[in-house]
Design a protein that fits this description.
The protein has eleven helices and 14 strands. By secondary structure, the protein is α/β, with parallel strands linked by helices. Helix 2 crosses helix 10 and helix 3 packs parallel to helix 4. The longest helix is centred in the middle third of the chain and has 18 residues.
Length: about 325
Amino acid sequence: MMLWICAALAGLWVAGGGCQKSDSNQAGGQPGMTIGVSFETLQTEFWVAALGAFKAECGRRNIKMIQAIADGDANRQIEQVRNFITRKVDGIVMVPKDAKACLPIIKAANAANIPMVLFNRPPEKSEARSVAVVADNFELTRETVRWMIGEARKTGRKHKAMVLIGDLGDINAIGRRDGFDAAVKEAPEVIEVVARIPTEWSQEKAQAGVVNAFQANPDISFIFTSSDSLLPSIVSALKATGRYKKAGEPGHVILGGFDGDATAYQMLVEGYLDATGVQDVYFEVKACLQAIEDLRGGKVVPEVIKDPGFVIHQGNLKEMAPRMWGANVKR
């Protein structure tokens, strides 16, 4: 595993002193730090919940948090992060709009000796130094789909399947697609994939694709979406075709997703959703802040910290719901 060894960097901070604030921070992340948090967007429940979790965790650690939202504009985000650097923050957390476009600003943070942590989206490979805290998209998706296949197997028949794929410019979408493919490849006697819907994370594209897929294959009975944010599009199409049935009811379509948002939680409670892979937002937020503290303390931090997440389903809902961020957000 590649490691970002920051002892030398921390040494510069202590010995040089000229590029860091002198009033607050000692190595080890003592209270009084100021960090900048830059989100590309707040358009989904996941990002809203994550920003709230950062505020709460910073409060617990007595860290001052400065936030900036780029509203989907990569250039705007770069300027916002440059502002963090100018203000000499003690660390930066960024959700990049683009894995490649963020590289210059990471290098700028490196030059200023400011630890840079990317939340939920890793950068493109380069010499720029950062830590990425990301969900294990491949494994969590594979485990979620395996659980769904287990439910399909109980029916004693073969199922036609549809998968909704995210924006393949997002490495998270690639991991989820590959995790789905790996799981269904293990069970050709149970699952036949007849529709692959490219959504680019767009509700409109998702809904149009799902409608078209049902027109071509009205007997689809197994659906996986790479993001819970696309569930409303699926629900709309299922209702239009009279296929929106609870688990256990005749005609139920086995349905699974990824994220663990509030819509997914409500659908689990009501019995319409079979399973979803939950990104552990609380784990990821704590890991980001701990990485900044450790880097400032001269500790060795992995280049990538993976959130294993967990699968929540009808069989463990009561037990796992307290850990599901979507069960804890206000709508």
